[in-house]
Write a structure and sequence with these properties.
Strand order of the largest sheet: 8-9-10-11-12
Shape: globular
Distance between the termini: 62 Å
Radius of gyration: 31 Å
Number of strands: 12
Oligomer: single chain
Strand content: 5-15%
Length: about 675
């Protein structure tokens, strides 16, 4: 780095000290509890490198980082995408800001980062790795140093280390991300069972170089079959094992080309497997919570920068363009989907609180709710007092009209003494309760019809389970009892326990789909085109869950490590109506063979449609109905074999009631 570059970065960093400090203060006022964050200023090339490295400065030597760097660089050059920041899950967290960002951009990404850091600290899925204290930067630097040392050893070829990493990375998503991370013990299969399978016995006899006469008289076929019958086939694991990396680390071998069989792994190979598996578990929560995490950060960034005017008057338009670019990105946008879902949770929780109060009011029932409630009056009663919504630095005494719990009176005294700039940071004189009412979602312009949109079935569901322990004489009395913090409190509860799959499954309702105009589309075999298929919440949910279940990858588990009693590996694809890409499956089996050292097998289910059925369906303007067929793909290190399996042999792989096909019965021409 040149002296001028260093000076420029120091200048930018110096100008961000106040925004960093005040963003942290505001985040804590709003009820967030982020890790400490260290902020760094980086240039364009450094940012691309950090993104390629997954947000860290040190990673092990491998060609994948160069490929990801090149992709990120081309994305910026040719598609107009810009990376404003990257933050990692660590304690303390490290956030890297692009030096070319405007001040409004820097403020936006700082508020965004503080919300990310809160999510890292409080979401329970991140606690599964090292109990929530990952010390990730140190771990990844240790891994980088260890692998570099292996590559530099004279008795190990660098290409062999890189190839071994390639094999392992092919399985980096084949872990059990729902379990707490634990290192794998070095216990081997041979230590667990003393019996030797038939293939091993035959190999041992070959090594003894016995005469044919002795083999015929003593170790004949009848004797071999008797040994197999006495021991019986040993099948393990007892239950399908999702953590394929752990299973291979424990029982796998490396394939030796010279010996033409599997031999014990070298120590460095086991060590690399351990490191790759640990990193897979570390990054798993980020993959599992992409929508939640980005939506959470976008929500609080928007509130801080926009509603609390953390963006100055001369920065606001710039910030609005910044957020519009982020939320307007095409395709399945996790920022947009996540932010909309968090807003829906806030609105629906606040609505439920208001409706419960109103249904306890004399004369209002769930049956007559829409007829007797004056929704304009409800909005007016819920609207914050002017002294709360527009704090006047010249008239701080007006805050005395607010509930005492809304105001930080020590801060008010500091403001009167000139120690707090209320014009710039009005939130400093408020408490959490005051901020909850100041930003109450149901009175915001975009949400003003949310209460009256409640369905009759939802009213009935709420009304039937209300106890008559508190009845109000008037709407004014009922709404005076509203808990304005309920929405934010519920959001933090959800943030603690959910991942993307449970988040979407629970909160993606038909009301949300209709309001935000989501839909599914399918490929029609009859017309050869993609077409809108459904706007039903169940169908949209199916499609989204397909993208997020098991990181959007096929779920593969170990079903037998001693398949056919020959130490072959049997994997099973847990079929959910979506076929495997057989070409990619074969390529992956080639990698697995190198880690297992013996033949590998994969059971799956495929959908088959004959050309005749496809043509008949096209003429009748219907979709052809595929036939589901069990398949076994076997790779022995040299060639592939595919065998049809009876349905009874693969039925256990098929999900009972999950089908991601949302095509209607008939397509309109």
């Amino acid at each position: 780095m040149s002296e001028s570059d260093r000076f420029n970065k120091q200048r930018i960093a110096g100008g961000l000290r106040e925004p960093v400090e005040e963003a942290r203060n505001l985040a804590q006022k709003l009820g967030l509890s982020p890790y400490e964050v260290n902020y760094w200023i980086v240039d364009y090339d450094e940012m691309n490198e950090l993104i390629a490295y997954g947000g860290f400065q040190h990673r092990y030597p491998h060609w994948r980082w160069g490929m990801q760097y090149d992709r990120q660089q081309k994305q910026g050059q040719y598609s107009g995408g810009k990376a404003f920041e990257i933050v990692n899950n660590d304690n303390p967290a490290h956030a890297f800001l692009q030096e070319s960002n405007t001040l409004a951009d820097q403020k936006a990404v700082i508020t965004h980062v503080e919300a990310h850091s809160d999510f890292f600290a409080k979401n329970e899925w991140f606690q599964l790795f090292s109990g929530g204290t990952p010390n990730a930067a140190a771990m990844l630097e240790r891994h980088a140093r260890a692998i570099t040392e292996y590559m530099q050893r004279p008795d190990i070829e660098r290409a062999e280390v890189e190839k071994w990493i390639d094999h392992t990375l092919a399985l980096e998503d084949n872990i059990d991300q729902h379990r707490r991370y634990k290192p794998v013990s070095s216990e081997s299969r041979e230590a667990e069972r003393e019996d030797i399978d038939l293939a091993d016995i035959e190999d041992k006899l070959d090594e003894l170089d016995l005469s044919e006469e002795v083999r015929r008289e003593v170790f004949d076929e009848e004797w071999l079959e008797r040994q197999e019958a006495e021991d019986g086939p040993a099948t393990f694991p007892e239950e399908p094992e999702k953590d394929l990396l752990a299973f291979i680390r424990k029982y796998g071998k490396q394939y030796d080309d010279d010996a033409e069989k599997g031999v014990e792994m070298e120590e460095w190979q086991r060590d690399v497997l351990d490191m790759m598996r640990a990193e897979a578990y570390y990054f798993a929560p980020q993959k599992m919570t992409k929508v939640m995490n980005e939506g959470w950060a976008a929500y609080w960034e928007s509130l801080m920068m926009g509603d609390e005017r953390f963006a100055g008057d001369d920065e606001f338009i710039n910030y609005a363009e910044h957020q519009a670019a982020v939320l307007g990105s095409p395709g399945l946008n996790p920022y947009k989907l996540g932010k909309e879902l968090w807003e829906y949770i806030e609105n629906s929780t606040n609505r439920k609180e208001v409706v419960e109060r109103l249904l306890r009011t004399k004369g209002i029932t769930w049956r007559n709710f829409g007829d007797v409630v004056d929704f304009a009056q409800v909005r007016e009663l819920l609207t914050p007092h002017e002294a709360l919504s527009a704090i006047d630095p010249e008239n701080l005494d007006a805050l005395e009209e607010l509930p005492a719990s809304y105001v930080d009176w020590d801060a008010v005294e500091q403001a009167k003494a000139g120690e707090i700039d209320v014009q710039k940071y009005p939130w400093k004189v408020l408490t959490y309760e005051g901020l909850c009412h100041r930003h109450y979602s149901l009175v915001k312009r975009q949400n003003r019809g949310f209460v009256e949109r409640i369905t009759q079935s939802e009213l009935e569901r709420i009304g039937r389970y209300l106890f008559d322990d508190q009845v109000y004489d008037s709407v004014e009395e009922a709404l005076a009892d509203v808990d304005f913090s309920r929405g934010w409190d519920r959001m933090r509860e959800v943030r603690r326990s959910h991942n993307d799959v449970t988040f979407i499954d629970e909160f993606l309702t038909q009301e949300f789909i209709d309001e935000n105009e989501y839909f599914t589309y399918e490929y029609s075999h009859a017309t050869g085109q993609y077409r809108v298929a459904s706007q039903d919440a169940g169908d949209v949910k199916k499609k989204l869950l397909l993208n997020f279940t098991n990181f959007g990858k096929p779920t593969i588990a170990v079903y037998d490590g001693n398949y056919n009693n020959r130490n072959e590996l049997l994997l099973g694809h847990q079929y959910n109506g979506v076929m495997l890409d057989v070409k990619q499956a074969r390529q992956t089996l080639e990698r697995v063979f190198e880690l297992w050292g013996r033949p590998v097998n994969l059971m799956t289910i495929v959908k088959e449609i004959s050309d005749h059925d496809r043509e008949v369906a096209r003429r009748r303007n219907r979709e052809p109905k595929p036939t589901e067929q069990g398949k076994l793909i076997r790779f022995d290190g040299e060639k592939f074999e595919e065998t049809d399996l009876a349905w009874e042999e693969v039925e256990h792989l098929s999900a009972d009631d999950v089908d991601y096909d949302t095509k209607p019965e008939e397509w309109l021409a």
